[in-house]
Here is the input.
Amino acid sequence: SRYAEGKTVLDVASGEGYGTSLLGKKASRAVGLDYDKDAILQARKNYKNANTTFVRGNLLRAPEVLQEEKF
Here is the structure.
């Protein structure tokens, strides 16, 4: 996570959010992306950091919310 310090990071295939949450401790913003609806719901339930967001989607067809970001 030292490479994430102060940056906006995208965690692809974030699963239930553990790794995204760890990245969020150092990053200015961490976004977890996963296709599995249940994994995203679980991540949102378990990791409620102010700078951490979880989005359902496919990287090849990034959701609109990601298209506005710079990673």
Summary: The chain has a mean pLDDT of 90. Helices lie at 18-24, 37-46, 64-67. The radius of gyration is 11 Å. Residues 12 and 60 are 11 Å apart (CA to CA).
